[in-house]
Amino acid sequence: MICALAIAVVGAVNDVRGARIPNWLTYSGLLSALVVRFSIFGWAGLRGGFAGLLLAGGIFYFLFLLGGMGGGDVKLMAAVGAWAGTKQAISILGGCVSAGAGADFHLQAGSPLKGAGTTLTEVVNDYYGTSRVGAAYSIGAAQ
Questions:
Q1: pLDDT tens digits for 1-34?
Q2: N or C: which end of the chain has fewer CB atoms below 10 A?
Q3: Residue 131, helix vs strand vs coil
């Protein structure tokens, strides 16, 4: 689980910084998970790694097909699932659902990030289509 956590953290940091999860991380994470699981647990470990990969990666692939996330997210979750195995992958997916379900990513009233953004002449409308010309920009996920 420590390796799964390490891959997830490195992937999340890359995703936040550059909106990209590098292939070297996801593919090396997948391959190393399967090799290590086979080396330690034999065929049963390899089967568990593949099952975790298919479960976690498969669910995220479905969300990818719906347009909910990018391909890097799918590969990262597949690598995490390969390290974690089936039982832990189910727990991790449950945590993902509970963390994102009903979450409000809008800035709350009184946030110091409201109106603290930089004005960009290239951006005339926000995500919702509201005109931002001359308006104070906010810094946030849904801004």
A1: 777 778 888 888 888 888 888 899 889 999 999 9
A2: N
A3: strand
Task: Tell me how far apart the alpha carbons of residues 77 and 29 are, in angstroms, rounded to a whole number.
Answer: 10
**Of residues 94, 86, 80, the one with CA closest to residue 4:** 80
Instruction: Identify the pLDDT of residue 39.
Output: 94
Tell me the pTM.
0.64
Task: In whole angstroms, give the CA distance from residue 43 to residue 40.
Answer: 9
Instruction: Give the domain ranges of the chain.
Output: 2-100
- H runs (alpha helix) in 1-143: 2-18, 23-65, 71-84, 86-100
Q: How far apart are CA 83 and CA 138, in angstroms?
A: 38
Contact 116, 95 (CB under 8 A): no
Give the pLDDT band of residue 96 (cuts 50, 70, 90). low
How many CB atoms lie under 10 A from the CB of residue 32?
15
Residue with tokens 């002449």: 121
